[in-house]
Specification:
binds adenosine monophosphate, 14 strands, Rossmann fold, alpha/beta, D-amino Acid Aminotransferase, Chain A, domain 1, single chain, 4-stranded antiparallel β-sheet, 12 helices, binds glycine
């Protein structure tokens, strides 16, 4: 198979590292890629968010499968452009990617699907968590323990634009759960932990991700299946019900609270940096699973 991998980060390098181990792979192409990926396949100077250019490249290279790394092109509808153009893609449609692109959509889907999550709050009163309702590269969330933090957070998030979501502040360790989905069923990957807050002791602001490890002690295959049953399969069923079947990686960010796991957010793609720690643990043929 000829594969075109989209993106330019460490996540895509980790995916490339795993994909080239597949006996099914004949050629690996990437756009735009990075120097690490260039040692494994051929990089092309096309931006992942330029959907018409990606479609043109996929056709010119006779690509059998496009694998999309980042969320921005997915939320903008890249997978739809490729599918309408006759190119197979591992990545959700615009309608399904809204599970990451819109926090209010995600909250609504969770409520209908019966997935446990942080309760919405009517007013920004500490303690609470403020979020903007769009993609913000991990920087659209402010965790507020005091009312001063709320006031600062409101100013900070107003600068990003988008509707404000206010929710209950939860406490507990976080884990990242990943499921490879074909629209109807899914396959669990190992769980990982990542660390989002800057500075030693996790006292700084949230970032897109500072580092990650996997496997996570205490989560064997049965425990992971239970989490996927709780947080991924109901979402898959609800998105299919809404005519937005989810094809791609559904990534649930969970907090393990004293009252049980709560979903903080969904992402419509592999995690970064989690993928770097996950890929060495994936047994079998990743390409076969994605195709
Ligand atoms: P999100 O983008 O929604 O995953 O939020 C980014 C980070 O903010 C999470 O990984 C948590 O560390 C923190 N966070 C988000 N929602 C909550 C919440 N309801 N309670 C406590 N921390 C949260
Ligand atoms: N590491 C968190 C993310 O990929 O969103």
């Amino acid at each position: 198979m000829r594969v075109l991998l989209l993106g330019s980060g460490g996540r895509e390098h980790a995916l490339a590292w795993k994909l080239v181990q597949s006996p099914l792979l004949t050629e690996l192409h990437a756009a735009p890629g990075n120097p690490g990926i260039a040692s494994l396949g051929q990089c092309h100077p096309v931006r992942a968010d330029d959907s018409e250019a990606v479609l043109g490249l996929a056709r010119a290279l006779h690509i059998d499968l496009v694998v999309v790394g980042p969320e921005v092109p997915l939320v903008a509808g890249l997978a739809d452009v490729l599918r309408v153009g006759g190119v197979s893609v591992f990545g959700p449609s615009r309608g399904a990617a809204a599970i990451e692109g819109s926090k209010t959509f995600a909250k609504d889907v969770m409520a209908v699907a019966g997935v446990p999550t942080a309760a919405p709050l009517p007013e920004p009163i500490a303690p609470c968590v403020l979020k903007v309702d769009g993609l913000a590269a991990g920087k659209g969330v402010v965790v507020c323990h005091t009312q001063d933090e709320v006031e600062e957070g409101l100013v900070e998030l107003a600068a990003l634009g988008g509707d404000l979501v206010i929710e209950e502040l939860l406490e507990g360790p976080e884990i990242s759960v990943f499921a490879l989905c074909d629209g109807a069923t899914c396959l669990a990957l190992p769980v990982a932990q990542d660390f989002k807050r800057a500075h030693d002791g996790d006292v700084g602001p949230n970032t897109g991700g500072m580092g990650s490890f996997a496997p996570v002690p205490g989560f064997d295959a049965d425990a992971i299946e239970e989490l996927v049953d709780l947080t991924c399969r109901p979402i898959l069923a609800e998105l299919a019900e809404r005519d937005h079947p989810f094809i791609g990686t559904l990534f649930a960010g969970l907090m393990l609270t004293p009252d049980g796991p709560r979903v903080l957010e969904y992402n419509c793609r592999f995690g970064d940096p989690e993928t770097q720690s996950l890929m060495p643990l994936v047994e079998g043929d990743l390409l076969e699973a994605l195709a």
